[in-house]
Structure prediction request, 309 residues.
Amino acid sequence: MTPSGRSPRVTSSSSPTPPDDLARLAAASRLLVITDFDGTLAPIVPDPPAATILPAARAALERLIAAGSGADDVPRLVVAVLSGRDAADVARRVRVAGARYLGQHGIEHASLEMDAAGALDPASALDPALAARGRDLQLIANEVRDQLDRPDWLVVEPKGASVGLHYRRAADPDRARLVILATLDAIARGEASSTASAPLVMESRRVVELRPVEAFGKGEATRRLIADIHPDAVLVMGDDRTDAEAFDAVRDWRDASGHPAMIVGVSGASETPPEVRDRSDVLVPGPDAAAELLGRLASDLEARPATGH
Prediction:
């Protein structure tokens, strides 16, 4: 059940989101679209570096940004890709000019800029203090890997201020998760190491992430986006526990402002966290359906010229 006491609508390509819902968003004078990357714009894959955005998702984002260009260079739509990956990495994978890229759950920003050769190249910014903490966390992640005898199934992903420990390739992912958490607990208690202060441990789909305790997550990142952009409608999409924090932030804004918002959970079948199911208005069955929804929103925007706003 959603916080409002209703079960989320479950949609598919043959049972789409009601047109009126998207039309209300498209009619807004300033629409904010917030989307996750892995599991939302791109299918989940065993090897995180191999994740690739769906062509339909990229095309939908490009159409949204083009259709959202307003008069006097003031856009009526802002697209923000809010990911657990580092900002430059997710910008390279999405490669849509005009979008905002927020990495490491929102603590890092990147933009795509034209380099000397005319190619789009991401430029990112991260607080130096958080980057220093990230180096400390890398030591902890390396120690976990060493204590586990460097298993083939463990992928360590440095992100700048945070580090991901991916265990999707393990033969028994549930056991791998417990082993990682137990090793981290031993390190934190000082039984195995005297490395830097204990990190904030976050769990997502088949990944344990180490973050600085002072870093905020997607909920706070979403609140800051809304405060910066001042939208009068919001669409938010995601598939994981961290995205549910963004869902809560959008729901709080909708309740307080009375403006329309759509909270879209992207299902990962048996891996879909209950927080995503419970906090979504609409639950779509995977990235293909998410891309289709974005494409239909783009069609609604394209049918509403900027001069009509």
Q: What stands out?
A: Residues 12-16 have pLDDT under 50 and may be disordered.
